[in-house]
Amino acid sequence: MQALLLVAHGSRRDASNAEVFKLAEVIANAPALPFSCVRAAFLELAEPSIPAGIHQCVAAGATEVRVLPYFLNTGRHVAEDIPHEVNQARAELPDVDVRLLPHIGAGDAMIELLIKKATESAQ
Amino acid sequence: MQALLLVAHGSRRDASNAEVFKLAEVIANAPALPFSCVRAAFLELAEPSIPAGIHQCVAAGATEVRVLPYFLNTGRHVAEDIPHEVNQARAELPDVDVRLLPHIGAGDAMIELLIKKATESAQ
Q: Considering A59, B17, B28, B115, which has the largest number of Cβ atoms within 10 A of its Cβ?
């Protein structure tokens, strides 16, 4: 049973964190999604933390957790802080396959999205 | 003549800021793009600032500037700080049509990207 954990930075604004929970909910309801549960977690400033989010997935029955960083650039958070948090959870859950995915800013999909957004605006 | 200004947060890591300049370059080379120039700017921690980036677009010949926030959530930066910076540039450039676009996290395109990234990872 595979779970998806969407990891955002976290904000002092509750409305911003609520957007992330809402995103996780929308993803969870997508058709033909290969995850039995989708949860959200935050690097800082909001709860649950990344390890707590991974534990939530396991409590929901997951034996595999895919951690998707909702981050744009390879800053310190993506390069160091998130891997550190994921490793902490791995040490606590040796029987769970926890895999950290590339952040969403990596790859061509984001470039396509930017071009689409910019082009729409020019019309 | 219309310019696109991609606005990122800015990082203490040069490699992260370089990613944003690279993104602007890739977008600039996209086929059939309705912008005569594409530039990058940063809210903080890196140069150019947003007003400086808008001035760069104008120096390159732009009479219209579309400012696209490369931000995911409606945090304080998107809700307050970026509009403040854009308004500062507007006051300095009354003859230029400067328009602030919705941040890239807004709308269905980002949800589609997230579902695509997550689904690919499960395979």
A: B17
Tell me the C-alpha distance between B70 and A67, whole Å: 22
Residue B59: exposure state from Cβ atoms within 10 A (0-12, 13-18, ≥19): exposed
Give B-chain residues touching A35 at CB under 8 angstroms: 118, 122
A63 close contact with B: CB closer than 8 A? no
Record the tokens describing residue A23, joined without a space: 């995103």
Q: pTM of the full predicted structure?
A: 0.87
Whether residue B83 is preceded by a cis peptide bond, meaning omega within 30 degrees of 0, is no
Q: What is the pLDDT along chain B (123 residues), one digit of tens a residue?
A: 999 999 999 988 898 899 999 999 999 999 889 999 999 999 999 999 999 999 999 999 999 999 999 999 888 899 999 999 999 999 999 999 999 999 998 888 899 999 998 888 776
Strand partners, A5: A39, A67
The ipTM assigned to this model is: 0.87
* Record: contact A73-B109, CB cut-off 8 A: no
